[in-house]
Amino acid sequence: MAVNEEPGADSDNTVWHLYLLETSAGALYTGITTDVARRFKEHAAGRGAKALRGKGPLVLCHQQAVGSRGEALRLEAEIKRLTPARKREWLAAQRAGLSAASCEGE
Predict the structure, then answer these.
(1) So where are the chain's domains?
(2) Assuming Cys at both sites, which of 9, 23, 31, 64 could form a disulfide with 55, CB separation 3.0 to 4.6 Å?
(3) What is the pLDDT of residues 44-77, one digit of tens each?
(4) What is the pTM of this model?
């Protein structure tokens, strides 16, 4: 995902987002984009990352505005280095105090 060009990605004003998806098997996928809704639709339609094809239905577990593409890439890399258990801990920490729906298995 990080190597894909996003619409408007050249603009200094573009806000990048980090998002986490959960597959039907419970695996977590981390990505970045400038448009979470568009990117989720691409993944759900099988046009997104190859790692998610045939793994649906997908659930959007988390999304957050990060800022610049560089900041988003750094956070994405940090999250991807975590074990699945640590990713779920990170998600729980992000949701602390929020009433957002959680992924299955949490």
Answers:
(1) 16-84
(2) 23
(3) 998 888 889 888 899 999 999 999 999 999 999 9
(4) 0.81
